Amino acid sequence: MTDYSYQSEFLNRLHARGFIKQVTHQSELDTYCQTGTPIAYIGYDATAKSLHVGSLMGIMMLRHLQQAGGKPIIVIGGGTTKIGDPTDKSASRPILSEADIEENIAGIKKAFEPFLSFGDGPTDAVMVNNDDWLGKIGYVDFLRETGKYFTINTMVKQDTVARRLKSEIPYTFLEFNYLLLQSYDFLELARRENCRIQMGGSDQWGNILGGVDLNHKADGRQVYGLTCPLITTASGSKMGKTAAGAIWLNADMLSPYEYWQFWRNCEDADTGRFLKLFTDLPLQEIARLDALEGADINAAKIALANAATTLLHGGEAAKNAEATAQAVFTQGGTGQALPSVDISRGEIEAGYLIASAFTLAGLTKSNGEARRLIKQGAARLNDRPVQDPNAIFTLDDLAEAGTFKLSAGKKRHALIQVI
């Protein structure tokens, strides 16, 4: 994408903060965003019970749209999840049951409420489920009215399709239809809501172009596509994936303290970029923080952690997380914001493996991994090394508050509450 001086508030915001990767009809899109109330959508398939931080780029784009006077639409993929987005996948996604999809939808809806204002006003966000229209389409009618606008010649050139075919990895006819369904979402939203922009990660570029082209061919309507870059860390790892697993947005799947720690522990080279992308801090303040060097960069990381956690979990949760981190790392204490799990006093008295507690608390994925952690000298109980992989708790190890503190390495901690 060539450099471009955007005039609309929305696109200028995105450009200044590093959100824009690809756009269609650049000048026309900029003009559209300067007139009336621009309307844009992003789709989210219901493949898990929570979104993770990899989805935050899109959520923040919707937030900037609303702040700039536009109307965000969230499309929950109740229909497309039944197919499974093959984009950037080396194998077919597992087919989920309708019950699983409904359960996942209930979970991922929670992620948007802290970031967007919902309601009936002209710029209030709305949430729709594409199963409301995809579930009602007759197959033959869909092929006649929509399929005629797509050519196999174009579809097989998509990166995912071409890569699977070249590698002779099965690519099902079910997956092949995903492009048509996502494109139809854009057509339906343009007709229902006068939505003119589809946004998403750059891996969705082919699907977005399909929707832009379908709107033009079917209705003669000019609509626009906009993508953000797929974020990787400075060391090249995928954003939102850690050794402990995904960084979920729902508090019942990842505690506010663990979320705060994720941002606090980001790489030095990522701090300024992440401040632009994942907080509302003014660019001038971000530039000041990004200029910090040496040990002072920790202040920028704390500012990032506090701002990002405040957006999702609220200011009180951010304060508690910072206070807990201070207690754990500086004062050698526990801190009540640490993630915690319960074990009964009877289980402790019967002999409960410390390795099992590491797995229960989510610090390791299995007891075998916990034992390896202990053998490596990286497991601690109440800040003291655990030396025996088969060690059990004793009630003598209880802290005054009736808890055990587990530590995996220097940065990951949890509490065991005895009930």
What portion of residues is helical? 40-55%
Strand content: 5-15%
> Please, what is the CATH homologous superfamily of the largest domain?
HUPs
Major sheet summary line? 6 strands, mixed
- Total number of strands: 13
Tally of alpha and pi helices: 19
Low-confidence stretches: none
Task: Please state the second-level CATH architecture of the largest domain.
Answer: 3-Layer(aba) Sandwich
For the record, what CATH class of the largest domain applies?
Alpha Beta
Radius of gyration: 24 Å
The secondary structure category is alpha/beta
Total discrete domains: 3
Shape: globular
Strand order of the largest sheet: 1-6-5-2-3-4
What is the mean pLDDT?
A: 88
CATH topology of the largest domain: Rossmann fold
Termini separation? 58 Å
Task: Quickly list its features.
single chain; 419 residues; alpha/beta; Rossmann fold; Tyrosyl-Transfer RNA Synthetase; Structural Genomics Hypothetical 15.5 Kd Protein In mrcA-pckA Intergenic Region, Chain A; 6-stranded mixed β-sheet; 5-stranded mixed β-sheet; 19 helices; 13 strands; 42% helix
